[in-house]
Amino acid sequence: MSTANETIQAVTWSDRLVQFIQKNRIILLAVIVAGVAGVALTGAVFAFLESSQKKSIAAAEGLIARYDELRAQTDDDAKTKKIDALIADALEAGKGKGFAASRSLALAGALYADKKEWSEAQKNWLAAADNAPTSYLAPIALYNAASAAEEFGDGKKALELYSRCADQYKDSFPLAARALFAVGRIDEDMKDFAAANAAYKKIIEQWPDDSWTKLAHSRILSIAAKEGAK
Predict the structure, then answer these.
(1) How large a percentage of the chain has pLDDT more than 70?
(2) In 3D, which of 163, 200, 155 has the Cα closest to residue 18?
(3) Share in percent of the chain as helix, strand, coil (round to 5)
(4) CA-to-CA distance for 132 and 101, rounded, in angstroms?
């Protein structure tokens, strides 16, 4: 009897946690625009870059500084105008190639997300990922592109992008298991329980020690309970 009660408790907890995850699926935007410790360009590396590359990086950093300033402002009318101007500048800077352009495109994605213009956010985050696919920024931008696709109701596109994020960056992205969990979560929402089970089992196989593995186990129990109740 206690085992049955424990299973019910695990399923109930899992359902509540999945609801919370779904409401808070976009990775903190500050991670995108601020950089990650240990991967930012050092002065030594910067010294060997071509002049045009230095200018592009400096321009991207200037855009990010403007974004940080805007986030602290409270005047809605003035802030909206400055956001629109910053988006235009970020899109212009994102026309190039390489990491600096990707940072500008990711910033544009973040700004569109702030405005809840999810289609444009998805487009720019995806462009950021594609523009510098080997950078630390790529899987973060790709994950957020998938989240944005969810926000405007394109579940199939979200599945595609989450799956790509989990597969392409499974060895380098700390949240690859989270991306694959999102695949299972969307499959559940679409009532494709076989596909959801496959995604959860893949998490267990590929990341046995990841914190998402316990939740994947609980979702498999939840699916079994739903299937058994039919």
Answers:
(1) 75
(2) 200
(3) 75, 0, 25
(4) 8
**Residue tagged 């509540």 (tokens):** 16
Q: Is 194 exposed, middle or buried (0-12, 13-18, 19+ CB in 10 A)?
A: exposed
Confidence label for 72 from pLDDT (cuts 50, 70 and 90): confident
Task: Give the number of other Cβ atoms within 10 Å of residue 104's Cβ.
Answer: 28
Q: How far is CA 57 from CA 43, 54, 71, 133, 134, in A?
A: 12, 5, 21, 17, 17
Whole-prediction pTM value?
A: 0.79
- Using the predicted structure, report yes or no on whether residue 146 has a pLDDT greater than 90: yes
Nearest to 175 by CA among 40, 71, 67, 32: 32
Reading the block at residue 89, the tokens are: 């500048």
CA distance 90 to 121: 13
Share of the chain above pLDDT 90, in %: 56
| Residue 68 scores a pLDDT above 50 | yes
Residue 38 class from Cβ within 10 Å (0-12 exposed, 13-18 middle, 19+ buried)? exposed
The answer to whether 198 and 183 have CB atoms below 8 angstroms apart is no
pLDDT given at position 39? 38
Dihedral sign computed on CA atoms, order 170, 176, 179, 180:
positive
| Per-residue pLDDT tens digits for 178-195 | 999 999 999 999 999 999
Q: Do the Cβ atoms of 45 and 84 come closer than 8 Å?
A: no
